[in-house]
């Protein structure tokens, strides 16, 4: 089912053709007919429009098996760009990608922390400006901004039932505020779902178009890709394995349930266990001289515990191992429900400690995955675990070009004569 | 996204058109163009073929908003039939459906029990004969037989890692043996997946095309329908919630893992708990005078405990309540991972005790489903819980007509001149 020139289902012929060209690198019109199943006439019309719009280039000719050589097509990579932003309490990660989804600029800045949402939004707008200007890209070519953050998200905007530290963001009209501040169309999504898309476009999954990305940042979640499309569920919040129950008699989670993966295995649980061990807390630098927290975020604290474990500190190793064993059981639940063949470990916390978690998760799959008699589950560590959500956020913008009639989202053609005020863009996201 | 005349994705235009006609009841060619997105010319060609094949009838004319009245199309319900068989240790359920998926005959017989697979297959062939002959349907119009059983199944045939009682079925070439015995093409699938299909075609889900069917028979599983298509996963074993972990320190399951839903909540666990209480065991009739098991299957024993609970026996109520609470947590995990809006309780054991389980599952969703701030999860009790898997099995055959190029499956047109020996049908299923 998979392969570089294999079409994935799309709602428009334009989207399917662009996606196949992107995946193939170079491809002829005949190749597009084969890959998409569209008629030659449809391909001819769609390709002409894409060339007229400057999104696709003709590039040399392929050897043919007879008849005249075939003209090859490829994306005009630098025709359009997209901004991807991963907003988390612990850090904000930015990427700028070209039309092909390649990262042309990236940067990391301080997380949302305890700042008020409007203050963070103004800062994000300045940081997006710096990202685009720093690499010298014409702002008129930037199609939009994808922003991803911990779920659950409502379909229209904003976060719901957020972790305690992000409560001020509930009911904040994030998409509209960010559109006004950046003068870019904004799409919002769940960071774990975006991580799966990011892995698909840039990661370690090779030709696989069906897999789950197990995400650990400040929280734990999963993104699901099925035949190249994100599986989103009823409200875009599919994959919430951070709040499945691993222990009916377990401790209470901030979400109100008991024995959740996040309260047993998440970075905050790891840090709390490390801090309960005064010697380890000191050795890992979790506290300053007065016993007060000395690091800016739970991910930074988690990184300190992970470093202590790598340095051979037995208490740190035991704590991480316990977290890994719980995460492995959650991963097995995900594999059982989705009947997975491939699972990718990703996200900022697994960028730090993934090598500790990988063998534990793989062992759990080999030992106890229910359908193991029919096929194994391969577990891989992402090579872009820290930036996968931001890359996925940018590709959401690129894919909204692939579906140009997406409600309210301006087409690239409209960008040059758009008014700076941006009222026409309000409501571009979500809907 | 849903509605009676809404096309769901299919691999062929014929399949999409048949499915829309079935769902709509009656529909015009113009309506088909709207519902499928195909051109008028494509619809015209496909409909002509379907009428020529006798699968679709023209039936009267609809009022038009102008111009000539539109001819309405409907399925020729009695043009083809399909057999659905649900094979379980505790019982074998048969249905015969017409082309529209309506049940025209049903029967229940003794389960596979401890009999040898070849003996059971010969019996199933006789019972299928009785089913078809009993209702006077011309056997040449029977397209094939769908057989569903507890998973996991291999893609090619047979069961793997089956519950202990079904071990003799591992490696038994069930599809080929059944094809030879019944002289019908056979498709195999997981009973929980079939239950979801059965609910979609006949059940309580109304217009919903995305939901999960939580199945409890001898075992526990789930079937997933996404936009009207079964979500099957890498090997057709998606939805295995019977073997997700609810308690990392829980008891060992027959599958080798610990704290599985099935070992905590399944009918065998309920019966074991009831039997451990000598008074309850006697009151529920679980044992004969000598303390030996007196009922033919675990589902029959489970039914006895459920009856005792309904009669107000406190120990029986407590045992069922404990099972329901564990099943509810598993259901919440499923809802969190799939971001569900609708869950249907189905399967033979929930046909018996569903009214006890329904409020407990609904309460767990309302209280602890992670995305509850964005939308609720509705839980419904199936109205065809005992037969949904068999109905789903038959619809798999009907849908393979909808995909007529399915590997090796004979087309209905070929049935009248097929040789009785059936070698051409070997390998019809799975592949």
From TrEMBL, chains A, B:
User: Residue ranges under compositional bias (Low complexity)?
Assistant: 421-431
Name the domain of life this protein comes from. Bacteria
One family name in Pfam for this protein: ROK
Which InterPro entries does this UniProt record tie to the protein? Answer: ATPase_NBD, ROK, ROK_cs, WH-like_DNA-bd_sf, WH_DNA-bd_sf
* Gene3D superfamilies in the record: 3.30.420.40, Winged helix-like DNA-binding domain superfamily/Winged helix DNA-binding domain
Segments forming a coiled coil: none
Region Disordered: which residues?
Answer: 411-431
The record's listing under PANTHER family reads:
BIFUNCTIONAL UDP-N-ACETYLGLUCOSAMINE 2-EPIMERASE_N-ACETYLMANNOSAMINE KINASE (PTHR18964:SF149), ROK (REPRESSOR, ORF, KINASE) FAMILY (PTHR18964)
Q: Which family does it belong to?
A: Belongs to the ROK (NagC/XylR) family.
State the protein's name.
Answer: ROK family transcriptional regulator
Q: Which organism is it from?
A: Streptomyces lycii
């Amino acid at each position: 089912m998979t392969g570089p020139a294999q079409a994935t289902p799309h709602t428009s012929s334009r989207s399917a053709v662009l996606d196949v060209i992107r995946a193939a690198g170079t491809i002829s019109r005949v190749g597009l007919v084969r890959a998409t199943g569209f008629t030659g006439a449809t391909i001819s019309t769609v390709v002409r429009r894409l060339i007229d719009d400057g999104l696709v280039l003709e590039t040399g000719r392929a050897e043919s098996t007879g008849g005249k050589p075939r003209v090859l097509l490829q994306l005009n990579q630098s025709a359009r760009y997209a901004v991807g932003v991963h907003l988390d309490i612990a850090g904000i990660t930015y990427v700028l990608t070209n039309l092909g989804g390649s990262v042309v600029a990236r940067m990391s800045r301080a997380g949302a922390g305890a700042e008020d949402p409007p203050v963070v939004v103004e800062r994000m707008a300045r940081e997006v400006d710096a990202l685009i200007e720093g690499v010298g890209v014409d702002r008129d070519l930037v199609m939009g901004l994808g922003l991803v953050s911990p779920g659950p998200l409502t379909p229209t905007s904003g976060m719901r039932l957020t972790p305690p530290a992000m409560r001020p963001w509930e009911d904040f009209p994030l998409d509209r505020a960010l559109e006004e501040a950046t003068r870019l169309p904004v799409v919002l999504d769940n960071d774990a779902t975006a991580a799966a898309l990011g892995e698909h476009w840039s990661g370690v999954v090779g030709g696989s178009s069906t897999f789950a990305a197990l995400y650990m940042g400040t929280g734990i979640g999963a993104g699901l890709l099925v035949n190249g499309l994100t599986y989103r569920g009823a409200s875009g919040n599919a994959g919430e394995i951070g709040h499945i129950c691993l222990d009916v008699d377990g401790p209470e989670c901030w979400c109100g349930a008991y024995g959740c993966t996040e309260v047993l295995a998440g970075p905050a649980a790891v840090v709390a266990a490390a801090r309960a061990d005064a010697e380890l807390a000191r050795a890992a630098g979790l506290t300053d001289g007065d016993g007060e927290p000395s690091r800016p975020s739970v991910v930074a604290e988690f990184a300190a515990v992970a470093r202590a474990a790598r340095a051979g500190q037995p208490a740190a190793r035991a704590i991480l191992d316990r977290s890994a064993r719980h995460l492995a059981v959650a991963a097995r639940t995900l594999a059982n429900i989705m009947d997975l063949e491939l699972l990718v470990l990703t996200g900022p916390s697994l960028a730090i400690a993934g090598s500790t978690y990988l063998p534990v998760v793989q062992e759990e799959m080999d030992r106890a995955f229910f359908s193991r008699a029919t096929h194994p589950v391969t577990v891989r560590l992402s090579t872009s675990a820290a930036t996968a959500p931001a890359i996925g956020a940018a590709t959401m913008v690129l894919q909204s070009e692939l579906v140009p009639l997406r409600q309210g989202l301006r087409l690239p053609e409209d960008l040059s004569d758009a008014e700076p005020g941006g009222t026409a863009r309000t409501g571009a996201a979500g809907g």
